Protein: Reverse transcriptase Ty1/copia-type domain-containing protein
Amino acid sequence: MPKEEAKDDGKRGVVTEIPIPTKISDNGIDEHVGICKKINELKRLLGREFDMKAIGVAKKILGMEIKRDRKAGKLWLSQKRYIHKVLEKFSMLDAKAVSTPLASHFVLSAKQCISTDAEMEEMVKVPYANTVGCLMYAMICTRPDISQTVSVIAKYMTNLGKEHWNAIK
Structure:
């Protein structure tokens, strides 16, 4: 079995790598006990560096809701509340839901970018970059299905037009 390794990462002290035991018995008890021991050791090591307390099973982390089915061994992460807050923040609660993240009729290009001072004045008030950032967070955490769309709209963060903003909405 591999040994536990401790390394100085040069930033915040010691990083400990704890291998998960690979011994499996007929009923899985040995594996479970081994994993629990390693988890407790990790908690002890983290407790040396940080103020920690046990508060029970995690229900939320980084704004993501955690749902479990322990019997089936499944875990779900949801950002439903986060997405609702984003829609509320950018006054998009009434936005029309679509089945595809970027409908085919939305063709975005540099030709649609701001070309007049009047357009510039209007678009400077639009929270385009903030909205793209919120979408990126959702994409990274729970929504990989919107990665193509976010990639397309992110191209226009510094020079956008009304069509780009409409594509987000």
